[in-house]
Amino acid sequence: MKRNYKIYKNEGKLAKIRTMELNGMFTVEMAYIVPFILMIFFLSIMGIFYYHDKALTAAAAHETATIAGTKVREKDEVTETVVSTIFEERIRGKCIVFGNPSVNAKVNKDQITITAGATKGRMKLLVAESSSITKPEEKIRSYRKLGLKRY
């Protein structure tokens, strides 16, 4: 950046005005730096969206496993399709990047396992949550039969 002074004749008087001349170096530097800064900004936004969807999917899977465990305890019929439907109700329309993740549910005698996964481009998301089927009523009844007051 050069600073020059030019002298102009104005109504018979001399005026000294400072002018600046730019070489164009600043424009070239910004042409390299601004795309790099924008790329970092957009990649950080995509990372935030990824972790949002991952946390949301994990929470929905955990909630679904807990609800299914409660339904089994209440003697309702719980199958993989019922568990998948519960998960899809919890997650529908909430993910930003991945849309609706696919779900795989396994219902055993003692445990319910939910595995949810989704892909978009090169990004992959896989979440597995499980919940054991507890039967506290049976334990309390067995304590009462034995005459124990401590639960």
Q: What Rg, in angstroms, do the CA atoms define?
A: 33 Å
E-strand count: 5
Main β-sheet, in a few words? Answer: 3 strands, antiparallel
The N- and C-terminal alpha carbons lie at a distance of: 83 Å
Shape: elongated
Helix content: 40-55%
Q: Quote the beta fraction.
A: 25-35%
Put simply, the count of helices is 3
Numbering strands along the chain, what is their spatial order in the largest sheet? 3-4-5
Encode the helix/strand succession as letters. EEHHEEEH
Structural class: alpha+beta
Low-confidence stretches: none
Your description of this structure?
The protein has 151 residues and is of the alpha+beta class. It is 48% helix and 29% strand. It has helices spanning 25-73, 80-91, 136-146; strands spanning 2-10, 13-21, 102-107, 111-120, 123-132. The strands form two sheets. A three-stranded antiparallel sheet has the order 3-4-5, with helices on one face. Strands 1-2 form a two-stranded antiparallel ribbon. Helix 1 (25-73) packs across helix 2 (80-91). The longest helix is centred in the N-terminal third of the chain and has 49 residues, at 25-73.
List the keywords.
151 residues; three-stranded antiparallel β-sheet; two-stranded antiparallel ribbon; transmembrane helix; Pilus assembly protein
